[in-house]
Amino acid sequence: MLKKDLPIYMIPTEYIKTNAIPLNSNGKKDIHKILIVAEKNRKPIFKKNNNCKQLTQLQEQLLAIWREVLKIENIDINDNFFEIGGNSIQAIQITNQMTEKIGCFMDIGKLFEYPTISKIERYILEET
Fold first, then answer.
1. Dihedral sign computed on CA atoms, order 45, 46, 51, 53
2. Given a cut of 90, is residue 121 above it in pLDDT?
3. Quick count: other Cβ atoms within 10 Å of Cβ 84?
4. CA 3-8-14 angle, 5° bins
5. DSSP assignments along 41-96, one per residue
6. Which region, left, alpha or beta, applies to residue 103 given φ > 0 means left and ψ of -120 to 50 means alpha?
7. What domains are there in the chain, each with its CATH number?
8. Which of 16, 83, 84, 128 has fewest C-beta within 10 Å?
9. What's the half-sphere exposure (Cβ side, CA atoms, 13 Å) at 7?
10. Is 51 exposed, middle or buried (0-12, 13-18, 19+ CB in 10 A)?
């Protein structure tokens, strides 16, 4: 539905059902309460691939970086960075952390070309 009308980065990765939007004492949206409600009711739209393959050390390192930056625990190596909510600021953070923690420089533009951990791993192995 939305995929044909909107760019991929504008398509929600999840919806959160609530009876009412929490308001603060000034009648404005209470962001802190909304985040609490969101965390309790979070249900990802995309189904995860329950692939039980053993991950490589590089995949584990990349997963740790993505989990830290995106603040999402349930990430698969085939998840698209932008489809699971990644944005340009987080892309910069991920590429910086890859340089710091793994010692692998990757231009931010490459994340658009290789938007999954499995594709990034393949890119890194081919470049080294």
1. negative
2. yes
3. 20
4. 85
5. T--BSSPPP---PPPPHHHHHHHHHHHHHHT-S---TT--TTTTT--HHHHHHHHH
6. left
7. 8-41 (no CATH), 57-127 (1.10.1200.10)
8. 128
9. 5
10. exposed
* Bridge partner list, 23: 29
Which DSSP letter does residue 111 get? H
Q: What is the pLDDT at residue 8? A: 66
What is residue 21's predicted lDDT score, i.e. its pLDDT? 87
Report the chain's mean pLDDT, rounded to a whole number.
84
Could you give the CA distance from residue 25 to residue 62 in angstroms, rounded to a whole number? 42
* Residue 44 in tokens: 């990802």
Phi, psi of 55 (to 5 degrees): -85, 150
Q: Which residue has the tokens 């231009």?
A: 107
